[in-house]
Fold this protein.
Amino acid sequence: MTTTINSNGNQLIASFIGRLDTAAAISTAEAVKPLMEAQEKEIILDCSQLEYISSSGLRIFLSIRKEAAQHNSKVIVKDINADIRQVFMMTGFLSLFDIQ
Amino acid sequence: MEALDLHSQFIIEEYQESLPVFERMKEEVLTVLRDAIGHNGLVVTAIEARIKTEESLAGKLALKGAKYGSLSDITDILGARIITFYTDDVDRLAAITEQLFEIDWNNSVDKRTLHQLDSFGYNSLHYICRLPDYPFRFEIQIRTTLQHAWAAINHDIGYKSGIEIPREYMRQMNRLSGILEMADDEFSRIRTEINDYRRRVQQLVQNGKLDDVLLDGDTFRSYIQAGPLDNLNKRIAAINQAEIMDTPLIRYLRVLKALDCQTLGDVSRLIKKYEEDAYILARHQLGNTDIDIISSSVGLQNICIVCILSSGGGKVGLKRMFDAINGHNSQNDAIADITFELASNLPFMKK
């Protein structure tokens, strides 16, 4: 599992590559820390290469959303695959995130 | 400074030496006011304070320096201002200010009570106050946002130019003040009526008279606070011993209205009618996974899905629902497809 963060103007783009499972959660949580302090940014969670997300991964996404709200930033989840879309639907997370 | 007489120059020197005292007073006054406003649950537009500049003080002394024996006779070196949304909050803040500070009643003015019956003008409440352990008095002004706007514009076009504006324009400004006074009263009245309405709605919800309450953002919130979905969400969470993340449900208001819910009674009946199938749908979806976190919206989401599918709404109906929740975007088609496939073998689809 690889997580990279790039900046593009007012956007911070976090790209997740691989499987965000329990084993990968600790390193991913560490990797997304810069997103937690972003003030008034548009945070894009690019999931185009994310194959799988576990409950631990969902909790990381929730933490990003919570911190973003406190720092007047906005989170957009982009390009989730069919399996992850199903996870978001089954858990009711669709109404928590802006999914594009 | 050169134009000032010796007496005024002494006052200016006293001012310069006392600036650190005024800075401390300013911070203390702001802290005391902010704490009290927060403690009393009031929301205001602004709390601000300023120390009069030396230039402004010199101007004042040039005009009427002889009136002041010393710096402590000048009561507006430190001025604080509280700007409220509503007229009745001015009264509440006045009462709070009287408790917080020692008031110099001889120099405090409620300009709201000084108006002639046939004229309008500057509305504001001015208190001259004192903090314990400080030698200087200070001023607190309390006014509404509209009063503040009028005063600021009046200052800009009148005093700032240094030229007295013609009587006709003064009359027009005062006429506007009358309109703003009416607007202030109307805002307060509307707030009071909305609060009364919310109290009545809460009472009706508590008494179970849900058919008497029209469905809107306010009433829906009151209803959800009573926890009509808690049982369903707990049952769904129990499938995988999941944690429930509290989520606002207001996005579902549009969906419920589209499902022909006009009163809270309609929403209550919808929940009762579909909650068992909503649970079965969740068990079918989550039962084979190890997902141990769900949103508190999942119960209502599944109720809406079951309602749409069992009444023949199909994928199109689901797509409309996800559009209402997420806004229009291309992902909603795929989400509707997945939802439809997952539900396709469940009993409610065959009814």
User: Anything to note?
Assistant: Residues 217-350 of chain B form one domain. The two ends of chain B are 92 Å apart (CA to CA). The CA atoms of residues 8 and 66 of chain B lie 8 Å apart.
